[in-house]
Amino acid sequence: MKQPTKADVLSRLQRGESFVGENLANIDFSGASLVSINLIAADLSNAVLTKADLTDANFNDANLSNANFLGAVMKRAFLVGADLTNANFEGADLEGAFLSGTVLSGTNFRGANLRHATIGAPYWAVPDPFGSLTSFENANLEEAIFGETVMKGVILLGAKLNGAYLYEVDLSEAVYKSADLEGAVTKKAFQESIWD
Question: Which residue pairs, CB below 8 angstroms and at least 24 apart, start in 12-17?
Fold first, then answer.
């Protein structure tokens, strides 16, 4: 089946169609309004969605590896079980998004807004020695919920974690300073920062 173009997708979206399981790899949706789009199990690897409006979008079980969401608006988006390997969410607005069970490996959330997001039991995959770590540097994680997990290969330096729920989170393999955890709900036994 022929891969749809950006124009095809926008036209079909206006008719209320979904894109479940479709191949949208490498497509450029820069600046597009894709509010409430259904992309369950779709392939958006290497897609460009910079500054797109993806409010209430559904990316559950989608392949978002190497996709670029720089500055995208993704409030309340569903990314449950999605593959976010090397995806770029720098400066994106993911307030209230659901990222439970996602694959996080070299994922860039620098400066992103994840306030009230649910990041439950993600799969943290540490990249090869030349890959990037998953970064939440300077991200807003206020009142975010992290499920029971061991944060492997994660950078939290400068992140705002006031009111974040980290009670059953093992931070022994994460990079952070104690000051980054001020105001977070944590279990003290797991706080052994390598930067203290």
Answer: 13/37
**What's 179's DSSP letter?**
G
Q: In this structure, what DSSP letter does residue 134 have?
A: E
Task: Specify whether the CB–CB gap between 13 and 31 falls below 8 A.
Answer: no
What pLDDT, in 10s, does the model give residues 26-40?
999 999 999 999 999
Structural domains for the chain: 18-196 (2.160.20.80)
Residue linked to tokens 């104690």: 178
| Global pTM exceeds 0.90 | yes
In tens, the pLDDT along 27-86 reads 999 999 999 999 999 999 999 999 999 999 999 999 999 999 999 999 999 999 999 999
In angstroms, rounded to a whole number, what is the distance separating the alpha carbons of residues 128 and 163? 33
